[in-house]
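Help needed: design a sequence for this.
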């Protein structure tokens, strides 16, 4: 039963993020509902929906409305029979392997290390991510997003101009300390072979808005700078872009759906729930993206690896 008045938009912070209510994602969106969602995504970049309780097929159909889909994950199959659904399970009472314990410990000391946009090691990272909560923990487990448009706009003009002309390399497991020589995470990530060069600032083609396009999980270095220069400039950018003023944090409830613009935001997974012994089960679907275009016209290029998915007709 469609809602008569259409989606209601309630912004959640001073800069970005909005709750959308009075809309059901379970059935196909009407054209006017889709238009509202599309415009809200451009304006707010992260959209939160409560109480949707979607299944895999409904989530896939919703994402497909926004454009062709990208594979669920570069190398993992986590949801049998669902090539576009990636399932992320954390917590619960399953014993962790020593390698998983190592990865959990490795993540924890550096708050910045977990910030990322999805699959930016590919030349054409997903444009949108659609994530739903199938089960949540009784506390903890929040996801946080950073607004990379506002973060860019609030840098000083000389620094913006400097970053506008730069290019960065993105690869998997930047800064990761391997678990011995048999580390499975490292081996599978390396064999997938995704390495890309992206402009440090990307221009969103739909409105010409600029966004920072680096993140600590994937960006290894800025190509035009010396290694110590690159390290310090990236640290400056990361500290700037993850400050609380540019972040929104979502306390998940079962049945929630969040859609975010993966070209204009970064996010960080929670690290405060795995000790609770409760399972957190999330399902994610990607809308395919395109290579990024920088302010100087520089376009992303693949250093190695095939395109993740080049859409037949652009979604950007
Ligand atoms: Fe992610």
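Sure. Designed sequence:
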């Amino acid at each position: 039963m469609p809602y008569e008045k259409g989606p209601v938009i309630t912004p959640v912070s001073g800069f970005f993020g909005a709750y959308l209510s009075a809309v059901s994602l379970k059935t196909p969106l009407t054209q006017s509902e889709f238009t509202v969602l599309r415009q809200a995504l451009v304006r707010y970049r992260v959209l939160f929906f409560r109480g949707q309780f979607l299944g895999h097929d409904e989530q896939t159909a919703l994402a497909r409305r926004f454009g062709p889909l990208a594979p669920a994950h570069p190398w993992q199959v986590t949801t049998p029979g669902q090539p576009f659904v990636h399932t992320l399970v954390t917590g619960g009472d399953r014993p962790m392997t020593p390698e998983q314990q190592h990865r959990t410990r490795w993540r924890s000391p550096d708050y910045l290390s977990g910030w990322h946009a999805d699959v930016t090691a590919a030349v054409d990272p997903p444009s949108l991510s659609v994530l739903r909560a199938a089960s949540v923990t009784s506390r903890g487990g929040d996801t946080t997003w950073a607004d990379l448009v506002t973060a860019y706009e609030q840098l000083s003009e000389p620094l913006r101009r400097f970053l506008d002309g730069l290019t960065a390399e993105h690869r998997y497991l930047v800064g990761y300390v391997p678990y011995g020589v048999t580390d499975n995470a490292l081996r599978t990530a390396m064999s997938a072979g995704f390495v890309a060069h992206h402009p440090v600032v990307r221009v969103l083609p739909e409105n010409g808005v600029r966004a920072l396009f680096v993140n600590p999980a994937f960006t290894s270095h800025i190509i035009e700078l010396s290694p110590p220069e690159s390290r310090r400039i990236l640290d400056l950018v990361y500290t700037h872009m993850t400050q609380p003023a540019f972040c929104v944090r979502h306390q998940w409830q079962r049945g929630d759906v969040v859609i975010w613009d993966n070209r204009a935001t970064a996010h960080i997974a929670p690290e405060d729930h795995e000790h609770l012994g409760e399972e957190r089960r999330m399902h994610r679907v990607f809308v395919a993206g395109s290579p990024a275009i920088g302010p100087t016209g520089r376009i992303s290029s693949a250093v190695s690896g095939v395109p993740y998915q080049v859409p037949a007709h652009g979604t950007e």
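The chain has one domain: 8-304.
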